[in-house]
Amino acid sequence: MRGKIISVEGIEGAGKSTVIQFLVDFLRQRGHTVVSTREPGGTPLAENIRHLLLQTDMTESITPETELLLMFAARAQHIQHVVKPALQAGKWVVSDRFVDASYAYQGGGRQVDYQRIAWLDTWIVADCQPEIVFLLDIEPALGLARAKNRPGSQDRIELEKEIFFTQVRAAYLQRAHENPTRFCIIDATQTPAQVCAAIARRLEML
User: Fold this and answer.
1) Quick check: 1 pLDDT over 80?
2) Using CA atoms, how far apart are residues 149 and 171, in angstroms rounded to an integer?
3) Engineered SS bond to 109: which of 46, 59, 140, 168, CB 3.0-4.6 Å?
4) Are 176 and 135 in contact (CB under 8 A)?
């Protein structure tokens, strides 16, 4: 049997790491073999692209077009070397962000034309679409406040202004509105236990 993809989306500080660990444990307890991965990243080359995208000491700015193409370059590696082999082996893939992140971050945040993103989506992602997208929804001000309290320095994306994340959040919610059967919006201001309980209820419907 072909496996399934579950992606976890949301702006910084939404609590994706906690949810991803819950998903992996939940699915494994029910007998599924699970591959936990992330975007951009997931393969050695894709992780190198991630480093390029997120580093803060660049000597030149990254244009929105370059950012989008690098995201899809990393995604192409990820899909071919991690996602497709896992699905074909009947494994479930839990991904920290997937293609919907490009519509939100490069489309909403960077204002790249959605048709260009959709063309890359059709070419690179094709039928490797998530079964469920858990969108952890949170006000940008609260999410950014949470993110600032995490250990370590902030990356290039995390250093963006609040208006950027307001646009990203709006794009995510628009995607969810356009794809109601695939998206499950979760109120990320709830306690971790409440968030995970809501996710469990949705998973029981599979």
Assistant:
1) no
2) 25
3) 168
4) yes
Are 11 and 143 a contacting pair, CB within 8 Å? yes
In this structure, how many other beta carbons lie within 10 angstroms of the beta carbon of residue 97?
Answer: 22
pLDDT at 42: 98
**86 three-state secondary structure:** helix
Residue 43 in contact with residue 82, Cβ under 8 Å? yes
In what order do the strands lie in the sheet containing 34-38?
34-38, 92-96, 5-9, 132-137, 183-187
CA distance 25 to 58: 38
Summarised one tens digit per residue, pLDDT across range 110-150 is: 999 999 999 999 999 999 999 999 999 999 999 999 998 88
| DSSP secondary structure, 88-126, as one string | HTT-EEEEES-THHHIIIIIIIT---HHHHHHHIIIIIT
Is residue 103 within 8 Å of 171, Cβ to Cβ?
yes
